[in-house]
Amino acid sequence: MSEGDKPQRKKMGLGRGLDALLGEVSLDRSASRVAGGGEAPSSTASSSSEGVVSIAIADIHPNPAQPRRHFSEESLQELAASLKRHGLIQPILVRPHGGGYQIVAGERRWRAAQRAQLHQVKAIVRELSDEETLEIALIENIQRQDLNPIEEAEAYRKLCDDFGHSQSELAAIVEKSRSHVANMMRLLELPLLVRELVIEGKLSMGHARALLGSDDSARLAAVVVKQGLSVRQTEALVRRSRVEEGKAPKPRVTEATASDADIRAVEQHLGDLLGLRVKIAHKGTGGAGAVTFEYRSLDQLDMLCQRLTGEQF
């Protein structure tokens, strides 16, 4: 399909949430009906116009293209215990697929419901394409901060490879900076062993980015994990390794350049967490300075406010 033939769908901002992506599904009406003791609607795709429906767990199956593939056993057990006491409060999102329903968003809740031995779960049924399904699943997981860096990077690559998205288009979809998307995708250049350490949480994204500068990243990653090195220490380890290999001149480090490097490292760390460009102006005396967050839309500002305050705006 050529660029001109692509269907033009409005890209929704991360701060708008899934309601915007799903056409403002009316949950209030269904919630009030459940709260009032009314019967849940039947589990059919045609009843999706009613909002939330009840579907047999056996009729639901996960999406093999789901960006999130790693689920904490402890977290699942805690959620299952909560579901036994209170039931499923937030519906999952599914689409008709293969004679049943495929999960678009909410696989963790579905898994926990199985453990809680629930027979049915509340769900929103929508007709969605493969592309829309992946986009929504990616955004939902990013909103919840459920993806590890490798899962997020792989989802970006799949959207690029399977649906022809550019990095700029991906940035618009998830309301991140283009550089954030590019930096995430670069993590896939790391050896499998290093990527697995990131998935397991033994290495942070900052560690992984530092190791990208080495041809011996697998060995250095093992050293980082064994010695519990910080990101700054990892960067220094990579620099020493390159000097020893004769691939870089030994840098002359002064107090001023070390301080600048610290500031740049903090800027990069905050930028990675928020997906925004961050600038720190440090005056160098008395510890004073200013932090600037650059956003391109009100949706990004909304997301930033939520991250900083933990509240819904």
UniProtKB/TrEMBL annotation:
<feature type="domain" description="ParB-like N-terminal">
    <location>
        <begin position="53"/>
        <end position="142"/>
    </location>
</feature>
<dbReference type="InterPro" id="IPR057240">
    <property type="entry name" value="ParB_dimer_C"/>
</dbReference>
<dbReference type="InterPro" id="IPR004437">
    <property type="entry name" value="ParB/RepB/Spo0J"/>
</dbReference>
<comment type="function">
    <text>Involved in chromosome partition. Localize to both poles of the predivisional cell following completion of DNA replication. Binds to the DNA origin of replication.</text>
</comment>
<dbReference type="InterPro" id="IPR036086">
    <property type="entry name" value="ParB/Sulfiredoxin_sf"/>
</dbReference>
<dbReference type="Pfam" id="PF02195">
    <property type="entry name" value="ParB_N"/>
</dbReference>
<dbReference type="Pfam" id="PF17762">
    <property type="entry name" value="HTH_ParB"/>
</dbReference>
<dbReference type="InterPro" id="IPR041468">
    <property type="entry name" value="HTH_ParB/Spo0J"/>
</dbReference>
<comment type="similarity">
    <text>Belongs to the ParB family.</text>
</comment>
<keyword id="KW-0238">DNA-binding</keyword>
<keyword id="KW-0159">Chromosome partition</keyword>
<protein>
    <submittedName>
        <fullName>ParB/RepB/Spo0J family partition protein</fullName>
    </submittedName>
</protein>
<dbReference type="InterPro" id="IPR050336">
    <property type="entry name" value="Chromosome_partition/occlusion"/>
</dbReference>
<dbReference type="InterPro" id="IPR003115">
    <property type="entry name" value="ParB_N"/>
</dbReference>
<dbReference type="Pfam" id="PF23552">
    <property type="entry name" value="ParB_C"/>
</dbReference>
